[in-house]
Every structure is written in C-alpha cells, then in structure tokens.
UniProtKB/TrEMBL annotation, chain A:
Membrane-spanning segments: 41-60, 81-99, 111-130, 139-162, 224-247, 312-334, 340-359
Family designation: Belongs to the inorganic phosphate transporter (PiT) (TC 2.A.20) family.
Name of protein: Phosphate transporter
Species per Swiss-Prot/TrEMBL record: Mycetocola tolaasinivorans
Principal place of residence: membrane
UniProtKB/TrEMBL annotation, chain B:
Organism: Mycetocola tolaasinivorans
Domain of life: Bacteria
Name by which UniProt lists this protein: Peptidase
Keyword field: Membrane, Transmembrane, Transmembrane helix
Chain ranges passing through the membrane: 6-28, 85-106
C-alpha cells in the first residue's frame, strides 16, 4: 500500500484519538464549577476548549518523550517502527478506550495509547523496539507516582484551606467564596490538560513522520502544523464533550465541596504542569482522581472505602496491558497479512467504534453516567460523614472567645450600671431643680437654711 | 537502565510549593474578606460548603444572614478597610503566583 496513504490514515486516527481524549476529559476540569454554579455550562465548556488549545502550544516535552523516548525509531539501533505498527497501536488504544468507556470501567486514554503502541511494537518488531529504561522512568513510574504525589499535595492543601478559614464562633466562614476560586483552578486544570494530553498525539504523529523519513530522527520536535491540528482536535473534542456534563447535572455528580475542590484542582494543575515540563507523559484522569481522593482524606472524619479505591486502581493497572494486547493483536494481523491485514484491522476497528457509538446512543443515560464517572467516582472512594461534630476548640482560642464573651457581659453590666447611675443622677437633678424653683418662689422669705440643708 | 529520581523529586517539590502558595494566599484572602464583613454568599450559612443549587429566595435569605453577621462586626471602619485591602492583595498575589508558575514552564519565554 502507498506509504502516503498509510501516513494520512495514521494522522486521521491519531486526531480522532485526540478528539475523544478531549471529549472524555472535559468533565475532569469543568464538572465541579458547573455543579457548584460558579460558571454557566456553556461558558465553562468554551473556556475549557480555549484553554486546551492554548495549553497545547505551551510545551513540547511530552511529545518528545513519545516521538523520541520510549520507542526506538530508525537510525541508531537499526530497529525501525513502521506506520503500519503505529496504526495498529492506535487502533488498540481507541478500541480499548471506547470499550472501558462503554462498560464504565475506570481507565486512562494515555495509558491505552502507550499500551497499544508498545504492544504493537513488541509484536511487530520484538522487545528490542522498546527502550525499557525510558519506558520505566517516563511512563510507568510517573503512572504510579503522579497520582500519589497529587493526592498527598491535595491532602495537605485541603488541611491548609480548612485550617485557615475555620471559625469557632459560629459566624459565616466564607467558604462559599472558594467557588469563585474554582473558576480559576479548573481553568488551570484545562490548561494543564492541553500541555500533557494534546502532546501525546503530537508525539504519535511525529513518530510516524520520523518512521517514514519525512522528518529527521535527530530533531523530534513536532512541526508547527502538527501542533496546530492536535490543538484544534483536542479543543473541538473538549467543546463537543460539554453536553455530557450538562446532561449529568443534578444527578449527584460529586460530593466534592468548594473549599475541597479548590485544593484538589490546584494540586492537579500543579502536578500536571510540573510533570509536562519534565516530559512525563502521565494520565490526567489519574492525577485528578488522586487529588480528589487525597483532598477527601484531608477532611475530618473521612475514611477510605477500600473496595471502591481498589476497583479504580485495578482499572488503572489493567489499562496498559489490555490495550497492549489489543494493539498487539492488530499489529499481528497487519504484520502477517500485509496490506490485506491492514484493511482487516481498519474494518474491524471502525466497525467496533461504530458499534460502541451506536450502543451508547441506545442507552444514553447509562453511557453518560459511565463517561463522567472516572473522576467523580474517585470522590466516592472516600467516605465523609454528613454530620461532622464540631472540631474541639483549641484552648488558646477558647480562652480568647471566653474573654470576649466576658468582656461583652462586663460591658453590658457596665452599661446597665451606668444607665442606672444616670437615671439616679437625673432624678437628683430634677429634685434639685424643683427645690430651686421652690427657693425662687420663696425668695423674699427666709434665706439660706433650706439650700444649705440640701447641699 | 537509569531512572532519574531527581526529576520525580523536582516535580513533587515544584507542585507542592505551587499548590501551598496558591491555596494559602487564596484562603487567607477569603478569611480577610470575611473579617472585613464581606461574606461571600450563595449558600446557607449553616451549610457553608455544601454543593447545592439554591433558589433565589434561599440566596436572598443567606445574604440577609450574612449582612446581619457583618453588622455585628466589632472592627472599626478603618480596620475593615485594611482587612479588605489585605484580602484583595492576597488574591492579587495568588494570581501573580499562578502566572509566574506558567511563565517558568513555557519555553517560549526563555528563548
């Protein structure tokens, strides 16, 4: 088959993957501000799309990890990945992604992509195609460490937020004000999403271009048109995906509260942005989930529900190998049957996607819930009691409050005493005035003795 | 096969610093705003951090309650103004911190 045709096919598939990624992840960033009423749904979704677009232009480190790091392209070792294998890998990623989505399993589009590519490369070329050191340090370890990092930071951030705004005197604490902060933190999450997830598609396209020799293996920076189309694809996906959030509103989407959500989102954005800068390709969904769980644990009286947490972790662990198997299978077909195999792959792949799409239209509500569940579900991995006993007041503050109350009581008593004294003085003055009037009336009569007595 | 552990530590420290700075500044800002008698409302005072979509009359009630609480504020007008200025300064610094963080990671600004 014509090499140009395959490259175009791969690029189209990669952009489709990018689109579904944006489509799937709008909820991660924008579900909370919409749910708390901080932003109108349309405004939030548009903002998320624009920020994804901007974020895609900010950095190229993650893209370089994929196009240069984990899979050895032609050049040095003589091993070379072909567009056919990339096609097979992408197909594996997309099929696994849509399947988990349909079944409501927690998953990660990023790990599906890596799994698919790695599976295809191993089947098509062998284990030498994979740079295991790079794979470990840029994909597998970040996958484990990033959610933990985000969770720990979110835990601390939640503690800080609640400690600073806590009031013991029962007056309003102003925590609803965090809703406005959430507008900015969720915007940051959308931006961070662009810096990490859009990069992955750029990396795949660049890898393809390098594999066919359209781009030098020494310069694996994505070309400008690649950045542009990837940015547009993810932004469009984000925008179109917005309807799902609007459809889920009012279904008990999340138990995350504004102050807690603010802390979690800040942690998510900071972790993703820092990781993107160092070229760690991580799953934004997993980082967001880690933050939500961490911030839940930061609230008083919370407990981890190990069943739910375990289910989420299992879904994460399964993604990479499962997508790898699907990708490997597609690669095996393409590898052994040549062009015919590639056509079989394409037909089976598009058939599967079409089937899943049609199925999703049939059972719309379930699908919507399953799709938004990823991050929202992680909120249910932490059990927070509805009625929390008021936090015991620290002695220092109790003393201050008591002193305040005492001072108030004293002031009241004083005011009372003063009022009494005043009334008394007034009465006295009146009496005196009366007496004086009397004296004036008796002016001509006897003198001094009466006045002197009064004094 | 070498793993760059320092890179992980860098991410952790950078993310931790950024988050703590932003969150602390914003929370102090909210606290000062409340001290200044400007309570952000939208939710009933008893359930200050519940996520609920409220009706207009409920929001009105909450606003009334917040206004009542603000009236009892023991601070003088000057102290209130100071607290409010502090709150805005905190929000401003918070925004600056975020922008500085983004500036640091965008290679475009560093040639």
């Amino acid at each position: 088959m014509d090499a140009t045709f395959i490259v175009i096919l791969v690029i189209a598939l990669a952009l489709f993957f990018d689109f579904t990624n944006g489509f799937h992840d709008t909820a991660n960033a924008m579900a909370t501000p919409i749910a708390t009423g901080a932003m109108k749904p349309k405004v939030a979704v548009t903002l998320a799309a624009i920020l994804n677009l901007v974020g895609a232009f900010l950095s190229t480190e993650v893209s370089k990890t994929i196009s240069h790091g984990i899979i050895r392209e032609g050049g040095d070792g003589g091993v070379s990945i072909t567009p056919e294998l990339i096609f097979a890998g992408l197909l594996g990623a997309i099929i696994w992604n849509m399947l988990t989505w349909l079944l409501g399993l927690p998953s990660s589009s990023s790990h599906a992509l890596f799994g698919g590519l790695i599976g295809a490369a191993i089947v098509g070329i062998g284990f030498t195609a994979i740079d295991s050191g790079q794979l470990l340090s840029k994909v597998i370890l970040p996958a484990v460490l990033a959610p933990l990092t985000a969770g720990l930071i979110a835990f601390l951030a939640t503690r800080i937020v609640y400690a600073i705004t806590r009031r013991y005197d029962g007056k309003p604490d102003g925590r609803p004000g965090f809703r406005y902060g959430q507008i900015f933190t969720s915007s940051l999450v959308a931006l961070a999403h662009g810096t990490n997830d859009a990069q992955k598609t750029m990396g795949v396209i660049t890898l393809t271009l390098v594999a066919v020799g359209a781009q030098s293996a020494d310069h694996t920076e994505p070309q400008f048109w690649v950045i542009l189309v990837c940015a547009l694809a993810i932004a469009l996906g984000t925008y179109v995906g917005g309807w799902r959030i609007i459809a889920t509103l009012g279904t008990g989407l999340t138990e995350v509260k504004p102050a807690q959500g603010f802390a979690a989102e800040t942690s998510t954005a900071a972790t993703i942005l820092a990781s993107s800068h160092l070229g760690f390709a991580l799953s934004t969904t997993q980082v967001a989930s880690g933050s939500v769980i961490g911030s839940g644990l930061g609230r008083r009286g919370s407990k981890v529900k190990w069943g739910t947490a375990g289910r989420i972790a299992l879904g994460w662990l399964m993604t990479l190998p499962a997508a790898g198997i699907v990708g490997g299978l597609a690669a095996w077909v393409a590898h052994n049957f040549g062009t015919v195999g590639l056509i079989i792959d394409a037909i089976v792949g598009f058939g599967a996607v079409l089937f899943i799409y049609l199925w999703s239209r049939r059972s719309k509500t379930d699908f919507v819930e399953a799709a938004v569940a990823d991050v929202a579900e992680s909120a249910f991995a932490v059990d927070i009691p509805e009625e929390i006993e008021p936090k015991p007041i620290p002695a220092r503050i109790e003393a201050r409050l008591e002193a305040q109350a005492e001072a108030k009581a004293e002031a009241k008593a004083e005011a009372k005493a003063e009022a009494k004294a005043e009334a008394k003085a007034e009465a006295k003055a009146e009496a005196r005035a009366e007496a004086q009037a009397q004296v004036a009336a008796d002016a001509d009569a006897q003198t001094d003795s009466t006045e002197g007595d009064k004094r | 096969m070498t793993v760059d552990w320092i890179a992980f530590l860098t991410v952790f420290i950078a993310a931790l610093t950024g988050t703590v700075v932003v969150v602390t500044l914003y929370a102090v800002g909210v606290r000062l705003l409340v001290t200044a008698g400007r309570v952000p409302v939208a939710l009933p005072a008893e359930f200050t951090d519940a996520i609920t979509v409220l009706s207009k009359s409920e929001i009105k009630q909450a606003a009334k309650r917040a206004a009542k609480a603000a009236k009892k504020n023991p601070l003088t007008q000057g102290q209130k103004n100071l607290a409010r200025a502090g709150a805005y300064a905190c929000f401003g610094l918070c925004a600056v911190a975020v922008l500085a963080g983004i500036y640091l990671i965008v290679p475009f600004f560093h040639g």
